[in-house]
Amino acid sequence: MTAVGRSTRERILDTAFALSTEENSSGISMRRLADGCGVNVATIYHHFPSKADLLRAVLEERGYPRRLGEDGPPPEVAAAPTASEAVRRLLAWLWRETLSEESAWRLLIGEGLRGEPAARDEARQLIALLEPALVGWLRSAVPSLDERSEPIAGVMRSVLLSLAVEHLALGPDDARTSARIDELVGALRLD
After folding, report:
1. What is the dihedral of CA 168, 29, 15, 11, to 10 degrees?
2. CA-CA to 132 of 20 to 30 Å: which in 3, 71, 117, 149?
3. 118 and 26 in a common domain
4. Per-residue pLDDT for the chain (191 aa), expressed as one digit of tens each?
5. In Å, how far from its chain's centre is CA 11?
6. What is the pTM of this model?
7. Are residues 75 and 156 in the same domain?
8. Does some domain include residue 69?
């Protein structure tokens, strides 16, 4: 691929990502994407034969699936004095990571709500990767949870997805997020 081809491809991906974060976005149509990139629709289809290919590339090139398998919580999670505090810190870290990827969530949720099969498939894959990562992080940070790690990871996954939907629908609210995390940690009765 030439440098020009690469730069056009990157511009298309960046524009698709930017369009997904716009308020009142009606979705990413190939025509709207072409207009946003300053290219014709044929150029979009040259690089991405289908919308599904475009959605996959937006997520894969930013490394979301790979990062879920490679990244881990900061050391202060495992250094927490109690299991409850470790889970609280883990959730807070996960939430910060989720917020740093708000555009990806907007893209997946928005296109998924519009019935785009590729977005739903990508969301399924990312969510399927999230739970085992959570189990591993919990077992590493809070070994005392032992067999409870799997069900707690499932609840944590659900809370993270709920927080993401609340955030996207209601707007940012750190107090609401902290309250939800505290509610979950309290309900788990870890200590």
Report:
1. 150
2. 117
3. no
4. 444 555 888 889 888 877 766 644 556 788 888 998 999 999 999 999 988 788 778 777 777 667 766 778 999 999 999 999 999 999 999 999 888 878 777 777 877 888 888 888 888 888 888 889 999 999 999 999 988 999 999 999 999 999 998 998 899 999 999 999 999 999 999 98
5. 21
6. 0.78
7. yes
8. yes
